[in-house]
């Protein structure tokens, strides 16, 4: 369980986030949605200890993010941000292998190698595993990073806009993989998504943010309502019932 | 959509045989070692003094030739490693001790030691050079935190500007206290006056190499960025600090004993990265070897080109290095055009 209590973060006087109070239960896929500047990424970064809190407390699996050792947290929690500009020349397999760093400290055992192989296969990267990252397309590289994050075998996986720069087919594939990791590998996945319909189709829960506050939190059916979404995005949004569940139309 | 579900059901043998492909003891590596040994032997027997014909030839061989070849190997490895670690830490391929001002800072450090102590020992000079290069490199890294686009040309430009300012300060102080000769001779790094008793501190580089090897994976992770490193439980600021300290140690020692050796840290890691990627642990032996080879080849050239005189090795390194620098720039621009 991720518990967020009275968390605040202020950038300037006008731009401030919180106080946030929320409990995200274990297991399943939770999506953070909301307009630009709502504080989704900031919240994710704070949970992932990449950004300090100004006030409040965050605990993940009963470990306080602020006081726990980073190397201990690395075994229960991992966070992946959007891709950065610099592309290190590592092979897909080397990158994924670094996901085992919290356990192996660089000395990979056979068990580590098996785990790495498992997630490389899972993400359809088997044929690419010895290719360098700078020789891959954006989507392939994104999958390689997700493989690394899964290799870390943490209970909690935080992803900041994993569908960024992916086309529809790649986005569907990525979400299928994440959904599978959540249900079959029992991971608790928290992800920032921009597309409401992707969130609706694949999430177990949706957390909607607006103006640095949590506007709504609940199951897909509870959040995918025209009045709630219209209010959050300040845009007229209708809900249709599609073959795979509710669809937002705007 | 998710096709291959669990790997246990897929071929199990195929998993067992799969591992990291970057093996060290390959035939090219053994060939490289043999080439380095050969270069070492050539280096030992290159020179004006006839060590076979003269009566004291053997003595000369051990007081000048052996120390010279050893110090070439040690400095070559040190500068190449320093470049490699810097490139990882800054996430920029054009960074090395001469494009970050590190060398200029150690020059300033040397100058300060000369100012404060009348006839400083080598140990004192070295300490000054190490301290100043550490401060300078740290300052550069702090400045870098303000730069958003780490992979850009801005990074080496900032570094070179910083270096130019520092060397201007050095020159000014030198002029003020009539020590320009010290600076000028220092800026032309050369191995011509290496002999027994003057190079032994370079052995510390072996220790630095071991320490870098121990931190290798953490430094590679630092190269993936602060977020990735933190997420994997690595203390990013600490590893940057350790990396900087190790670079400064290596560069400071070389600066005090040999002088300014430009571009070695740029050429070698880039060539290794092209062929073997950026995994520091498996690349470090290659980088060390190639660093040794490059500087020995340049030094042999410097000794034979205008025999019986010697060209400073830094001149040859500078010429070769600047060409490689431009080639890397052009290659970067081309790859950017194809991927975007």
UniProtKB/TrEMBL annotation, chain A:
> Does the keyword Membrane feature in the UniProt annotation?
yes
Write down the InterPro entries for this protein, in alphabetical order.
AAA+_ATPase (IPR003593), ABC_transporter-like_ATP-bd (IPR003439), P-loop_NTPase (IPR027417), Siderophore_ABC-ATPase (IPR051535)
Gene3D superfamilies in alphabetical order: P-loop containing nucleotide triphosphate hydrolases (3.40.50.300)
Checking SUPFAM superfamilies in the record gives: P-loop containing nucleoside triphosphate hydrolases
Predominant location of this chain?
Answer: membrane
Q: Which UniProt keywords apply?
A: ATP-binding, Cell membrane, Ion transport, Iron, Iron transport, Membrane, Nucleotide-binding, Transport
Name one molecular function that GO assigns to this entry: ATP binding
**UniProt domain ABC transporter: residue ranges:** 2-236
Annotated localization: Cell membrane
Membrane topology according to the record: Peripheral membrane protein
Protein name stated in the entry: Iron ABC transporter ATP-binding protein
Q: To which species is this protein native?
A: Saccharibacillus kuerlensis
TrEMBL record, chain B:
Secreted in keyword set: no
Extract the InterPro entries matched here.
ABC_BtuC-like (IPR037294), ABC_transptr_permease_BtuC (IPR000522)
Say which domain of life the source belongs to.
Answer: Bacteria
The places in or outside the cell where this protein is found are:
Cell membrane
Pfam families attached here? Answer: FecCD
Q: Which UniProt keywords apply?
A: Cell membrane, Membrane, Transmembrane, Transmembrane helix, Transport
Membrane-crossing ranges are 27-49, 70-89, 101-117, 129-147, 153-178, 199-219, 239-272, 284-305, 311-330
The answer on whether this UniProt entry bears the keyword Iron-sulfur reads no
Q: What is its main location?
A: membrane
Its placement in the membrane is given as: Multi-pass membrane protein
Protein family according to the UniProt entry? Belongs to the binding-protein-dependent transport system permease family. FecCD subfamily.
Protein name (Swiss-Prot/TrEMBL)? Iron ABC transporter permease
